[in-house]
Amino acid sequence: METPISILLGFMIIGAIYSLSARDLLSAVISVGIVGYSLVICFLLLKAPDLAIVQIVVETITLVIMIAVVLDSTRIIRPQKAKGFVYFRYALSLAVIVIFAGVLLYMWSAPDLLQVFGDHTTRMSTAYIENAANATGSANLVTGVLFDFRGYDTLGEATVLFTAVVGVVTILRLKGKK
Amino acid sequence: MSEIVKTVTKIIVGVIFIYGLYIIVHGHLTPGGGFAGGAVLAGAFVLLVLAYGSPETKLKSQKEYPAIFESLSLLAFLVLASIGIGLGIKVFFNNYLPKGIVGDLVSAGNIPLYNMAIGIEVAAAMFAIILALIIYKEEARE
Prior knowledge:
heterodimer, A: 0% strand
């Protein structure tokens, strides 16, 4: 289980780094697609088909939009010279590298210090897993939690989507209403 | 797009649409639900628009419908959730309909209805964004 996910994570990291340094914007967009589709396979390996369905469809639609945008542009990144604060930027990136290296080192040594994953008190999730089917009547546990125990969360997500559409339509329109 | 893409789209788009409806309606039984099924429905619409282009599908004359469907389904979701307050149990988002047998298609009380409302909302929202991108680009050209 861990080996294929590690290989996929490696691919995702390579794709993300390549998309930062690609000259052609189209290849940058496609290498971002590697990240999304590898995430789909990761979700499937981790036994989360609900997330995998959403991720694969949203990733495809986003990729279509991004490719349409890139094909309509010049597809080339203009080289920009860094102005001012050069030393500050170097110091900032150095600080970020040091902090992340520290966090990674801590993560490396953490499994010895912490308890095994899933060994903590998981009363909440255990209660959900045991009682959700009878309490909500839904055979799919995820839907039972989303629409019954966590109904407010779903309402919030739907409102976020609604607000996003309102924002897109408001920003994109050129002609005002008379 | 070319004739090959148009023909394949004509064959496949109905299957995709039915699959999205299946995911939404069976949301409380099999993996998926409102969000996943709504995204698949939006994918079917996007495929249609990509293959046939905006003049043939007369997008401009239909740009209000996604917004109307989105608002109405979100309103239906809220009304469904708040009916429970009037029925004696003073809880928002209560599952007040009879639960039925676990595993039946008609079971789980309110959850299938919530699923349908959210599915229509997600499909209409994603399609509305794409429609806005296409239509306002045409307007900018004119």
